[in-house]
Each structure stands twice: as C-alpha cells, then as structure tokens.
Amino acid sequence: MLEKKIGGMIMIRQLDLTEVYEKNTVGKPSTPGNWVDSTPTYREVTRLRMTCGGGMGGAQWYEVIERIDLNDLMQRDYLVTRNWLGEEIGINLRYVVDAKQFTLATAKYDSQNPNFKQLLGVSEYNWLIKDGDTITLVDDFQMWNK
Question: What is the pLDDT of residues 14-69, one digit of tens each?
Fold first, then answer.
C-alpha cells in the first residue's frame, strides 16, 4: 500500500500490479462509506515486467508507465517516462522481460469506518483492466481487489 499526501489529506493508492481485474463491478471496500464519484476515470498504460540479476529466477517487479507504443518501445535502449503516480523515471530497457498494454481504472472512496483509522477519509483505488473494459462502482461491500 502506497501513501501519498494530496491537498493536506492522505490518499492511499491501492494497486496490485501483478493482477488484472476481470470483473465488471467493484463494490465498497469498507463500510460505512461511499464512492466519491459515480464512475472511475481511465488512463491507458503500459505494464513492464522488469528483472535484474539472476534472470527470471532472480528479482522481478512491474513498472506501470504512461502508454507507449510497443513497436516504439522495442526501438530504444533507454526510456525516460512517467509512472502511474506521475513521477518521472528512467528505465534501462535491456531489463524488460515483457510489456503489455492495459487500462488503469481509478476511483476514490470516502471511508467513514472509525475502526480503521488509517483508511478513514478519501482513498484512491486503482485496478489494471483489459483495454476496452470498464468497471461499474456498486454499493455492495466487496474487498477492493477481489
């Protein structure tokens, strides 16, 4: 779980880079509370699987970056871009194992549950979904990533 301070309040950015969310609905992550907006926002992104030392048996992780054409990506050795948080990053493309195109769906949830003080207030939730898919936010309880 990443935390980033925005406008004087803490917004927790929830994102599981390893999973692609395949349902078409997302329920409330906690109760009581409600979605801030009725629909998520969408951004096209590219997910890079990175490796270093030991090949695929060694360390690996994902980077989610602004959408880049895959043919253009293969013509480079090094890339300076922005990640999904908007931070400028440089990537040595010799350590990219694979690259896939996705859409990043983002929704804000205002939790009023006093039992989870770290989640009290507005939090941002993010899901990687297939291009062309959309998500409907519903009022039923559902773990945010299930």
Answer: 788 889 999 999 999 888 999 999 999 999 999 999 988 665 567 889 999 999 99
Q: Give the span between the Cα atoms of 74 and 16, in whole angstroms.
A: 25
Going from the C-alpha of 91 to that of each of 40, 45, 64, the distances in angstroms are 29, 15, 11
Would you call 51 helix, strand, or coil by DSSP? strand
Which pair of tokens denotes residue 129? 């979904």
Q: Where are the beta strands (DSSP E) in the chain?
A: 2-6, 9-14, 25-28, 33-35, 41-52, 59-66, 78-82, 88-92, 96-111, 121-129, 136-141
- Burial degree of 123 (CB within 10 A; 0-12, 13-18, 19+): buried
Written as six digits, the tokens of 82 are 């922005």
Please state, in angstroms and rounded to a whole number, the distance separating the CA atoms of residues 128 and 52: 24
CA-derived radius of gyration, the chain: 17
pLDDT band at 144 (very low <50, low <70, confident <90, very high): low
